[in-house]
Amino acid sequence: MVRVRFAPSPTGNLHIGGGRTALFNWLYAQAKSGKFILRIEDTDQERSKQEYVEEILNSLKWLGFNWDEIYYQSKRFNIYTEYANKLLKEGRAYKEKLAERSSETIIFKVNPGKIKINDLIRQEIEFDTALIKDQVLIKSDGTPTYNFACVVDDATMDITHVIRGDDHISNTPKQVMLYEALGLAVPKFAHLPLILGMEGGRLSKRTGATAISDYRKMGYLAQALVNYLLLLSWAPGENRERIDIKEAIKLFDVSDVNKTAATFDLKKLNWFNNQYLKNEDSEKLADQIIPLLIEKNYIVKENFDGSACPPSAGSLTINPERSRRIDRQYLVSLVKLFQARLSTINDFSDWADFFFTEDITIDPKAKEKYLSSDLSREFKLFINKLDGLDKFDIDSIEESFRKLVEELGIESKALIHPIRVAITGKTIGPGLFEVIYYLGKDRTKARLLKWIERGG
Ligand code: GLU
């Protein structure tokens, strides 16, 4: 039975690199019908924080990587001491005072020799232990070192495959020596390649290495992020990029992971997110967008009680200043209108802001380009056309517009762009006639009139 583990230290948030390590472990467990174990490596009691534990657990849950078992190293100190004492008794370790006034430390004696591992990704790697110093197992404060706790845990938790970042390669021979000294079975190792930033260096905050929870806050979909992380170091073949996680489970094997470093490209992630957003169920997307609109004060839930708004709970009201009622179905229609062009969920409130406020900001460049000449006459004529409509629907709006430009003998674009800018503030967006339809006749007219009155 395959048993893999993800072993984060709660000294910081879960970042992109950790997210990918978790993914590959989780995926391998699913692919082999094995178990995915989560081990919180909180031996450093000063740097470990409960808030990071929570952040890591929440991020893993959000990504969909549910674990079968969870352990905290801080609760297992007696087990490490027991194993260290065994090594002491067998003469494989000794005690020493590393500082004058401190208590003793238990140190492992390193014998010179060669250690070979058959890494599942990088094949054979050989290490010369003559280059490795004796290793501290238990520090003078009684806490175990990472390498020692890791070996005791991987062995006692029956871990079959250790899949982790290749920044741990130098730890591997140290750990193998400990397995051998303790007479424990050595697991298989798979070291995942580094993830580089776009500029070649290590991922840093500057190049996009923010926490997984930040991506969530920025409006990325978990499925898109998982798909992107997957392709950072693995390919399903046939040049496929979008892959459903269930299918990935069927195709994945850790030995197919790339050896070479991956590059984290935010643009590519945005592309993935857009692909997923495009295809996301609009109702579900609306559920995620509504709280953001409430936060922006774009919509207010009727009798809003201050708690988070359960999105499916009936009708919503636009900001009370305007007290325009807007129901959920209307919002879902707006989501449908914009979802193909969103890179993140949060983009919606930027793209669609003009639906939620009368106080629209007109992009100065757009104004200069499309509204510098006096279009009062054309705008008035368009208002008349809208007023004359029997039915206010998308087709009729379009038809009336087409008629108008024909009568005026001008090109459509000579009026489409100025109207769009006047009523939305932007040069791009969904089809103008759909925008007018969802904005409604009164609001469209009011915005055009306001423009006329101001005289541009
Ligand atoms: N706590 C270590 C880390 O976060 C785990 C390394 C390992 O997987 O062995 O890097």
Briefly characterize the structure.
The protein is built from 18 helices and 15 strands. The chain is of the alpha/beta class and 456 residues long.
How many strands, what sense, and barrel or not for the largest sheet?
3 strands, parallel
Bound molecules: glutamic acid
**Which geometry do the CA atoms define?**
elongated
Question: Would you report the number of β strands?
Answer: 15
CATH class category label of the largest domain? Alpha Beta
Number of domains: 4
Low-confidence blocks of residues? 303-315, 319-324
Helical amount:
40-55%
Distance between the termini: 73 Å
Q: What is the alpha-carbon Rg in Å?
A: 30 Å
CATH-assigned fold name of the largest domain: Rossmann fold
Helix count, DSSP H or I runs of 4 or more residues: 18
- The CATH architecture name of the largest domain reads 3-Layer(aba) Sandwich
Structural class: alpha/beta
Strand order of the largest sheet: 1-2-3
